Amino acid sequence: MKILIDAMGGDNAPLCVLQGAAQAAAEFGQGMDLVLLGDEAALKACAAQNHIDLAPFTIVPCSEVVDMHDDPVKAARHKPDSSLVKGLTMLKNGEGDAFVSAGSTGALHVGTSLIVRTLKGVKRPALATPMPGAKQNFLLLDCGANAECRPEMLNAFGTMGSVYAQKVMGRAQPQVALVNNGAEDTKGTPIYREAHQLLKANPCIRFAGNIEPRYIMDGDIDVVVCDGFVGNVVLKLTEGVAKTLLGMLKGVFLKNLVTKLCYLGVKGGLGELKRMMDSEEVGGAPLLGAAKPVIKAHGSSKAKGIKNAIRQAKTCVQNDLCGTMQTALNALQTPAQG
Amino acid sequence: MKILIDAMGGDNAPLCVLQGAAQAAAEFGQGMDLVLLGDEAALKACAAQNHIDLAPFTIVPCSEVVDMHDDPVKAARHKPDSSLVKGLTMLKNGEGDAFVSAGSTGALHVGTSLIVRTLKGVKRPALATPMPGAKQNFLLLDCGANAECRPEMLNAFGTMGSVYAQKVMGRAQPQVALVNNGAEDTKGTPIYREAHQLLKANPCIRFAGNIEPRYIMDGDIDVVVCDGFVGNVVLKLTEGVAKTLLGMLKGVFLKNLVTKLCYLGVKGGLGELKRMMDSEEVGGAPLLGAAKPVIKAHGSSKAKGIKNAIRQAKTCVQNDLCGTMQTALNALQTPAQG
């Protein structure tokens, strides 16, 4: 198995990418071919400076870099020798089995659509983010790749998310729900009402009905479906509220000597709480619906985030995620015989 | 000033409504006429049982009740002698200056549109909820009354929210922002892009541009504008995430004797944090755009929530909220002279 890694993507590249890739190689890299794409001289210098052994890796030199200010479409079209575009091109050409990048979400999304292409029945891939829930993690899609979605797209998200939950998250019978402002199937906009009916009739999933935003974080549902505008709100607002509350909690403990001592007593438990809300732990966001596995690691990924994204890519390939997904999508496309 | 109060609305009616109204009468009711609408016998029995003095109140007897299972339109049309519909009718007829209810949001919204009617230029009122922010409270609208909104509606929400922030929340120069999945004015759906342009050109407000969901809870913005579908997600998800995190925090403190002792040390600070997230504290949600002040108290309001909603109603009347809002909306309607 060959995993392609964008060594220049993300806020902490290339150092954290190299560190994460080295950890992946050590922990679960046996029998895997890990390919680093990037500025060869920069990678070698960074590795030497930080005592990272490059022996487990193949380096594919790239002369360009896609940065956060690049227009996604222009970057995908006009930076063929960037680590991001070259990686996607190699994936397309069969010179790799999966691609991992912490680079620009927009460029990765557009590049995946244009270069790797999508499964039959999928117009544009959805960004699916694993999120922390009280009971267990859940998958949220779309998280912002497609601001507007037709009902059929939301239905396909249900199918794709369900397959991912089974094949990569290890959920035997994943439950799928649609974000909506009420439990009744008459709730929401016309698009959500129609999507509800399609999901209800979808033979490939276990549809649990609408999920009200108040209950999303409970983690009772495995796959939470919504359009990219709403998904972005759910993803980022959760981060924002958690950050604000944990920040205020810090203030409570910093008040005086007594509260500081109290902090020591509950430090372990608070650490667990913080870890639960840590995007590094839950892993990267797959671009579901792409013809081959593409994993978007968080832009601010440290080594652990990169390592976990590489692990996700490995699981996708091992379990033939894209093949299984295509079969499920085909079932969706074929009208039932009367 | 005469405030009409739906004594039968909400999960804890009539007891908590009577308690809240009694507190309002004692704290800031001087010179005010507080009118309780409901089943007279039930109100009197409840008051007697709980030692609540009904002397400060006028009771308007009602023979019907709108409950949470009633269809909003049917309830508004066919239950004229319910406390909710009778209150709105009295408001419409000038037999009161404002109406407060913790009853069905749907029925109150539809009833307000049909009976009290809206200001000129407003098709349907928006539900505006004061929300807790790290820096200070902010107003979120629409919170679910209008799942789909045209750009002009979102623009009117900006105007109405800004007037409310000035007149009732005491913000001298309120900042208005539009929820969106990026700071750039090219972000979001076509409706949000057009709304952004309208808000930018709106002479009645200080428009701060788009606000990303991650920053909503910071409280740097006074008025946060979005459609009712997204607003419901923001409102309810914030509640859900806060509830989940505070619940997990409780688990951390309950772990053993040491952590329980630590809890005692930070109890005060944690109480403040909890109070901040308490919807009772921040008050009810005005139906902005109604021709006269209508305040929706949270369905689960206890006495404090009802008292604070009555206080809001008083401030709305004192500061001629609806008159000021109509003037601002008129300015929006008049095309600029070339």
TrEMBL record, chains A, B:
Its main location: cytoplasm. Its EC number is 2.3.1.274. Gene3D superfamilies: Isopropylmalate Dehydrogenase (3.40.718.10). It catalyses: a fatty acyl-[ACP] + phosphate = an acyl phosphate + holo-[ACP]. It is found in: Cytoplasm. The keyword Cytoplasm applies. InterPro entries: FA_synthesis, Phospholipid_synth_PlsX-like. One of its GO terms (cellular component) is cytoplasm. Keywords: Acyltransferase, Cytoplasm, Lipid biosynthesis, Lipid metabolism, Phospholipid biosynthesis, Phospholipid metabolism, Transferase. One of its GO terms (biological process) is fatty acid biosynthetic process. The keyword Lipid metabolism applies. GO terms for molecular function: phosphate:acyl-[acyl carrier protein] acyltransferase activity. Pfam families: FA_synthesis (PF02504). Pathway: Lipid metabolism; phospholipid metabolism. Homodimer. Probably interacts with PlsY. Belongs to the PlsX family. PANTHER family: FATTY ACID/PHOSPHOLIPID SYNTHESIS PROTEIN PLSX, PHOSPHATE ACYLTRANSFERASE. Catalyzes the reversible formation of acyl-phosphate (acyl-PO(4)) from acyl-[acyl-carrier-protein] (acyl-ACP). This enzyme utilizes acyl-ACP as fatty acyl donor, but not acyl-CoA. NCBIfam families: plsX. This is Phosphate acyltransferase. It comes from Candidatus Gemmiger excrementipullorum.
